[in-house]
Amino acid sequence: MTDSSKKPPLAGIRVIELARVLAGPWAGQMLADLGADVIKVENPDGGDDTRQWGPPFVEGGDGENLSAAYYHSANRNKRSVTADLKTEEGQSLVRRLAATADVLIENFKLGGLVKYGLDYESLRKINPKLVYCSITGFGQSGPYASLAGYDYIVQGMSGFMSITGEPDRQPMKAGVAIADIFTGIYAVAAIEAALIHALKTGKGQLVDMALLDVQSAVLANQNMNYLISGRAPARLGNAHPNISPYEVVPSADGYLILAVGNDNQFRRLCTILGLDGVAGDERFSTNKARVVNRDEVRRLISTETLRWQKADLLKVCEENAVPAGAINTIEEMFADPQIKARGLRIDLPDAAGNVIPGVRTPVVLSETPLRYERPGPRLGEHQEEVVAELEALERAKREGKSSP
């Protein structure tokens, strides 16, 4: 999967990951795919919680449990060591690692690492250029700063669930932990910006990431709809608050998506469906009018789409440049020829020869391609290797050398 003649963009950058579950490990995995040496520090008593979050579990060729599928979704390309932070030995190992690192990622509760001397103020004394990324539910300030943060709860608090789901039913969360995932992605951008600063100035900094900040910010146009109108957006099911028809419609053999984004596309859709005169009707001729009259638009469109087989309607929409799409299962998504052509699925062998599937980071760089070398590590798999590297680095420093 990796072009050995080209180095990934973060080759030579070392990241220490004191994080578990999703937001922090998601950031760590993306940095690892980009070429950073990410050393995951785990509690020796079971490690990252997600190792046990199954079924399903990944089984080795000999039936050995290789951790839950959830764990493997966020821990590719890393090395694993263990450290009990309650002990002097564990704290010492993390300090030694931090002294050699460019980045540290942690997702402990506010102040949770102060008692171990592993907080930002303590570690910056050891390594002034360290970029220290702290991921919490509510950030380093504010009345909720000391509270634990959970993706599900943050989806509710942010307003996201108030705009997700059918109007007459329960508010709905997303099908994946999007607050965690978005926070991980934003954290990578922030870390890379701080790294550039550190490389220019020799000074690190604290990166303060909060799930609630991120999930609230990514409401995008819905935030602006409220700020401009003064009215809180409501749940519209699969409909779009600003565009019509932009929603799920029925066919004779299932559902599909229509994503009509302008008036020309709407006129072409009306021609396809035999809705003569509709596109010229002042109630429907502009997007603004269609949004006001969305219920009638839905009724007219759905009456006609029900006469079509799904595949036939998708085909004729494509031929006439009317945006439409299938609603795939995840199984169908992986079987889609476009997904296959883009190589989204990857299969990585571990040190024992077990092949573990995964999904690549959705970034393609022409000159500094990402790397995909190994699946999520076993707990403590690289303990001896990493400790030996530390000893070599420390010896070289004592001898006045820049590297071992």
TrEMBL record:
Keywords: Transferase. Pfam families: CoA_transf_3. Signal peptide: none annotated. The keyword Glycosyltransferase does not apply. InterPro entries: CoA-transferase_III_domain, CoA-Trfase_fam_III, CoA-Trfase_III_dom3_sf, CoA-Trfase_III_dom_1_sf. One of its GO terms (molecular function) is CoA-transferase activity. This is Crotonobetainyl-CoA:carnitine CoA-transferase CaiB.
